[in-house]
Amino acid sequence: MNLHIKTGDVLDEPCDVLICSANPQLNMSGGVNGAIVLRGGQDVQEELWAFLRGSGQPHAQPGSVVRTGPGPLRAKHILHAVAVDAFYGSSIELVRHTIETALKQAQELGAATVAMPSLATGYGPLSMEQFAQALSAAVQPEWPGIEQLSVVVRSEENAEIIMRVLALQ
Question: What residue numbers bound the domain in which 43 lies?
Fold first, then answer.
């Protein structure tokens, strides 16, 4: 799997599967999820709420990943990755586990290209360096079938931090 660290808007990244951060309530209220709604993705929000109703649970468990359709995006699927708890707490281990769960689902969906932002670094408490440590551990195993993982962040500074931690510079 080729790993690319890029700057820009993850919603504009061509991919089969978009992994995006989600809160345990699966409310698309901010960050990447909020941007999906602003682009016309209210149907994606409805899918997430239907998932919760069908599960009989009031919220998604930290570390879980919920698949929806692409809504207004060019991706084939969106994987909503819950890398925070109900109080927006997180850890390197939780983010690593969540990324691995999402990549496994992407494999099962036959995705060759996957894009994602940094998880648990916006509303979550992790620094970009901590996210990069989790990412590094998550991509150590082979992920057959996934040809490319693009991590798209908003600033060159954040991209440089991730590349430094991954020793890609």
Answer: 2-166
